[in-house]
Amino acid sequence: MTSDQPLRVELKTLHLTEPFRIAHGVSTERQVLRLHWGDAVGEAPFVPYYGENPQETLRWVQGLAWSGSPVPEAGPRAGRLALDVLWHDAVGKQRGLPLWKLWELDATKLPPACRSFSIPTDLEAFAEKVRETHRQFRVLKLKLGSGNAEFDEAIAAKAREAAPQATIFADANGGWSVEVAAAIIPKLARYGLAFVEQPLHHSGGVAAWRELRQVMPHSPLPIYADESAQSSNDAHALSGLVDGVNVKLLKSGSLKEAREMIHTARVLKMRVLLGCMIESSIGVTAAAHLAPLADLVDLDGHLYVADDDYCGVKFGSAGEVVLPEGPGLGVAES
User: Fold this and answer.
1) How far apart (Å, rounded) are the C-alpha atoms in residues 25 and 287?
2) Are residues 61 and 120 in the same domain?
């Protein structure tokens, strides 16, 4: 698929509705790479822990003279993903179908969506936010890894108190050591959590996961990998050590590889959480087209963006995913 239309490239700064606190640090804004090609659009976010330079990525894309050809296999992660999303949007528009229909997926069988909370500073204000959010979303995700295990447990306790009927899971973003994880996970089980995501820092590799299983051979809660599961190969390496994986487009690098990672997880009997980064509705909606393949959806990154200039995937009154019907990504400027 080629075109003589010029590729337009820009870096865009997204401002957040509030400071977003996780174990990696605190963010008040994020940058994304935004591409336009005719009426097609693509986007990929820059995430601090990948260490990619936005300006270098911008120059890399500008130097490609891209016109619909296959996405290069080598190059900056965000640049390659933005091109891949752009290409899929263009193909879907050309064929007049949203991606999920192009892939022949069943949008009547969508998993529940969750709403995430960053690490709070005021537990009472946090509890009120949990109560308010639970009126729509039945599944809630808690960011832990605050550096204080007792405070992490207090966050879980306060969330359960505020939403007794909610399905709640926790994400430590690698904020615990093996020793802390083995000590706190049984305590978190008291609050009826569904699972714990990425308790260990990804820099520890598979060895850290093996060590956790040695000191806690029978975890009272299922354990999912996020930062440690970047690809299908990582899923294979973690087989028998984790119960599920979080699949994200930026980690996979393309929609095709994300689908392959989901398939690999299924073969390995792992559960699949479909996630995203903090990004606009363009990137989140691109991921949402894979929702019929997942067990749970964590696609609320755009809801933290104060100046999201696109609309796409939506959530119903019970927090259910509503996929777009428009062709390609199905996004539109808002």
Assistant:
1) 24
2) no
Q: For residues 106 and 92, state if they share a domain.
A: no
Predicted confidence band of residue 48 (pLDDT cuts 50, 70, 90): confident
* Joined tokens for residue 140: 């809630």
Q: What is the pTM of this model?
A: 0.96
Nearest-angstrom CA–CA distance, 41 and 53: 21
Kindly write down the DSSP assignment for every residue of 114-180, as one continuous string: EEEEPPPS-HHHHHHHHHHHHTT-SEEEEE---S-HHHHHHHHHHHHHH-TTSEEEEE-TT-B-HHH
Q: Select from 96, 131, 148 the last residue of a domain.
A: 96
Token reading at 152: 């992490």
240-294 tens-digit pLDDT: 999 999 999 999 999 999 999 999 999 999 999 999 999 999 999 999 999 999 9
- Residue 45 near residue 79, CB atoms below 8 Å: no
> Which segments of 216-298 does DSSP mark as H helices, in order?
232-237, 249-252, 255-267, 281-288
C-alpha 167/C-alpha 151 separation (Å) is: 20
What confidence tens digit (pLDDT) does each residue in 75-109 have? 999 999 999 999 999 999 999 999 999 999 999 88
Domain endpoint, select from 96, 127, 142: 96
* Residue 33 maps to a domain: yes
Do 186 and 53 reside in the same domain of the chain?
A: no
Domain count within the chain: 2
Residue-range definition of the domain harbouring residue 90: 7-96
